[in-house]
Amino acid sequence: MLLNMTRHAPLNGRTILITGATEGIGKATAAELARRGARVLLLGRSPQKLAATAQEIGAAGTYRADLSELAEVALIADEIRRTEPQIDVLINNAGGIFGTRQETREGIEMTWALNVLSPFILTRDLLPALRASTDPRVITVASDAHRLARLNLSDPEFRRGYGGWPAYNASKLANVLFGRELARREAWLVSASLHPGMVRSSFNANNSGLQAALWKVMNLFAISPEEGAQTSVLVASQPELGVSGGYWAQSHLTAPAPAALDDGLALDLWDTCEDYLRRLGL
C-alpha cells in the first residue's frame, strides 16, 4: 500500500532516471514518482526485471547495463544522452554489500565500483542532459552507515583487511561526500544524499553465512520499501528544495557525520575517482 505523500508536489511529466529500480526501495520510489506524473526511466541489469517493472509501474523507458562495470556505465550514459536530451532528476539508487571481497571484470573491488565509481561516472556523463532542465537534481542514496565509516583513500578497495560492512560503510561516506562536492562544483543543480532508513528488502541477499542470517533478523524490524522511498520522493519532488549538498533522513535535512563535512576529504575523493576513470580510459 502506498503511503500518503501529500507533502510532495505533482511532478507534471518531469523526466526522472533511477538506477536499481526493479526491486526494493528503488522500485517503490519509481512507482510513486510515476504515480505522481513523472516520466520515469529505469536503469538496471536484468532485461526481464526491467520489462516487468516498467509494465507494472508505467515507466516511460528502460536502459540496461551492469552498473558494476564502468565501461558499461559510460556506454549507457552515452546512449541515454542521445535519446534523452533532458533529464530533470537523476537518482543514484543502486548499490550493494558483499560479504567476501570480489572484483569486477575491470579488476576493481565490487563495493567501490558499484557504490562509488558507478554513480560518479553516470552523474558526470549525464550533466549535459541535466543542464537542459530548469530544476535539475541529483539524488544519491547513501545510508546512516556512513557514520561508522573510515574512508582510506590510499586503499579504497580494501586490498588489506577487507570486511563487507567496513567496505559498505566507507562507500556510503563516499556517497555523502560526493553529494557535497558535486554541489560545490556544479552550483546550477541541486545535489542531495540521503538515508532511506533500514528497509525490508533483498539487500544483502547475495551473501551467506552469519552476515545473511543477521540481516534476516534485522529485516523483521525494518520498514517497508514504500516507507523507505519517502525521502527520495520528497527530495525529488518538493518545489524549491533550496539546499544543495545536504544530507536527508526521515524526510528532513539532517546533519551527517563530521567526516562527511570534511571538504578536503570530499575533494580528495573526487580526485581519486577521476584518477580511476583516467586509468580505465573513461
Automatic annotation (TrEMBL):
A Pfam short name: adh_short
Q: Which keywords accompany this UniProt record?
A: Oxidoreductase
InterPro entries tied to this protein: NAD(P)-bd_dom_sf, SDR_fam
Q: Does the keyword Membrane apply?
A: no
Protein origin, superkingdom: Bacteria
The protein's name in its UniProt record: Short-chain dehydrogenase/reductase SDR
